[in-house]
Amino acid sequence: MLRETTIESTIDTDSSAPEAAVSAVSWGAILAGGVAAAALTLILLAFGSGVGFSSISPWTTASGWTTFHVAAGLYFIVTAMIASSVGGYLAGRLRTRWTGAHTREVYFRDTAHGFLAWGVATLLSAGALSSAAGILVNGATSAVAHVAGQSPGLLDGYVDSLVRADPAANGGTAEMSAARADVGRIFAAAFQNGGEFQPLDRAYLAQLVAVRTGISPVQAEERVSATIERARAAVDRARKAAAQLSLWLTASLLVGAFAASLAAIEGGGLRDGTWKYKV
């Protein structure tokens, strides 16, 4: 009986009436931390672009791409950790003091404030700072567009190698441009459908190559098959590069959420005097 009375007294003390009348969420502190984190993210992204982390390209050699991609991914994580820590610390340090709340409840609220500040910063970065973030992920974004067939840039070289011939023996520039545009449309349509070329398209490409280059139909079919395989390999590399970069971005977001929550506990503890400064 004595133990039950003690527990009830503690609950009554920890949940006072004035506290219930006021929201435990300090939106001013959360917005301040979120804006600070978003602004610092912009600064770090600009710095990363200046030192070369914007040079992400899926068309380099395999070893070069893998090494540089890991470095760019690590920079994303470091950026998220620094910016989110600052934002979370400000959200915890600037929030109002909670009177009568249990120590564990204060820890929870500080963690929630840091997480919400990270959420605000993420939304701001996805909106207002999307163009700045695009500087670093330009390579992967372009790769996705090329893979989807929205831009022929990735396939330009393969289209050119397929229809290239001796200009002196095959008409003028207008004829070359028409053939190239025709082949480019076929390639774009095929890769929009998973890279599968219809038999009629293959036959037409072989006939076009034979007429343009003067080689035999068999050699034209071999050239078409070889070019299609090389184009498929390039598109697959671009897909993998975009997927890997997306995983690094996901990891950076998770690290940022954790860092913001932890930093908010630090800032809240200093705000309440739980942790004292050491002179």
H/E topology pattern: HHHHHHHHHHH
Strand content: under 5%
Gyration radius, rounded: 29 Å
Q: Tell me the domain tally.
A: 2
Identify the overall geometry: rod-shaped
- What's the total helix number? 11
Q: Kindly state the percentage of residues in helix.
A: over 70%
Low-confidence stretches: 1-20, 55-67, 139-152
**First and last CA, distance:** 47 Å
Number of strands: 0
Structural class: mainly alpha
Structure description:
The chain has 279 residues and is an all-alpha fold. Mean pLDDT is 74; it is low at 1-20, 55-67 and 139-152. It has 2 domains: 25-137 and 247-272, no CATH class; 147-235, no CATH class. It has helices at 2-14, 17-20, 27-50, 62-94, 103-127, 130-136, 138-147, 156-163, 173-192, 199-213, 217-272.
Structural features:
single chain, 279 residues, 2 domains, disordered N terminus
Summarize the entry for a quick read:
The protein is an all-alpha fold.
